[in-house]
Amino acid sequence: MSTSRQLSESRAIPTRTVLINDTTQLPHDYCTTPGGTLFSTTPGGTRIIYDRKFLLDRRNSPIAQTPPAHLPVIPGVTSQHILRENKKNEANNHINNHDGKPTT
């Protein structure tokens, strides 16, 4: 078992501020901090932090009002109408099934 350790000097992740003029300049994947700051990281390790004012200005844009595409169907989460239909069908099955046998 080796007990020798090599100390290394820590370095800050390089950052820079870039003014974004259009929502198309935002990446497809980004992260958030517990405080709500949005950021993304480049393949080289540079962290990109997005300005809160810019994001708030864009919240009423047509793209922000468009629902996300390619979401999985999760009743009650991504598709409310399917949840309502399932509840209606369960109620109808309960009413139509007087002898307690499961419906097929």
TrEMBL record:
Q: Which GO terms describe its molecular function?
A: eukaryotic initiation factor 4E binding
Q: What GO cellular component term, any one, is given?
A: cytoplasm
Query: One matching Pfam family, short form?
Result: eIF_4EBP
Asked if the record carries the keyword Repeat, the reply is: no
Instruction: Give one GO biological process term.
Output: negative regulation of translational initiation
Q: What keywords are assigned to this protein?
A: Protein synthesis inhibitor, Translation regulation
Tell me which family the UniProt entry assigns to this protein: Belongs to the eIF4E-binding protein family.
**Name of this chain's protein:** Eukaryotic translation initiation factor 4E binding protein 2
Q: Which organism is it from?
A: Gambusia affinis
